[in-house]
Amino acid sequence: MPTCEHCGYTWTWKESLKKLFTFRPEMVCPSCEEKQYQTQRSKMKSSFLMIVVLLPLLMTTFFDISVALLLGLSPILLVFSMSISPFLMEVSSKEEFIDFFRK
Questions:
Q1: Which distant-in-sequence residues (6+ apart) come within 8 Å of 40 by Cβ?
Q2: pLDDT tens across 23-69, in order?
Q3: In degrees rounded to 5, what are phi and psi of residue 42?
Q4: E-strand spans in the chain?
Q5: Could you tell me if 4 and 36 are in contact, meaning their C-beta atoms sit under 8 angstroms apart?
Q6: Which of 4, 45, 80, 98 could lock onto 9 through a cystine, CB 3.0 to 4.6 A?
């Protein structure tokens, strides 16, 4: 679970899950009200986890999977990945940007 760098408050699972559904990059600490930002490492972990949801679509190109199985498996994988995402979230006091030109 994410922990505030300023005061050490640990967000609950529910508070972390709410962050996943917002478009704002900052996350305000409920304890000290300081802005916290999800780290790039944490964003990468979440992105790879969301790929798991799309995995059944890729599997249909290699295996003969029925549409009913595909439609049944995708929501289960989505719920699974969303429930694990708050445990992978890390926050910092500084907003990090992807540096595409880093050597």
A1: 96, 97, 98
A2: 777 888 888 888 888 888 888 888 888 887 777 777 777 777 777 88
A3: -65, -40
A4: 26-28, 35-38, 91-92
A5: yes
A6: 4
